[in-house]
């Protein structure tokens, strides 16, 4: 009976060890599951507040409109500047530039050819 008793004791010990491993495995699985949930829940699904979205869109639209108006005003100011067509020709030929660039630069420098050339040579 000694050998049979040893087998039962070993089987009982093995069963206890298997239960202990199952308990450890289930705890480990629970910890892994919680860690995975934290990773996947890191990016929350949030509903956007429609009023905040509308106000942000309105701010963008008004900013774009203000930029457009400022650009139109600047173009009107530049168009009003009197420039000498001879200066445009000289700058375009001597610096090998397009006439539109030479004219624009002259207008930006209020028709001052020297300032325009200095700017272009920088």
From TrEMBL:
Q: Where is the composition biased (Basic and acidic residues)?
A: 35-49
Q: What GO biological process term is on the record, naming one?
A: negative regulation of apoptotic process
Q: Which InterPro entries match?
A: Huntingtin-int_K, HYPK_UBA, NAC-like_UBA
Residues forming the Nascent polypeptide-associated complex subunit alpha-like UBA domain are: 81-121
The UniProt annotation puts the region (Disordered) at 1-51
Where are stretches of biased composition, namely Low complexity?
A: 10-23
* Protein name, UniProt field: Nascent polypeptide-associated complex subunit alpha-like UBA domain-containing protein
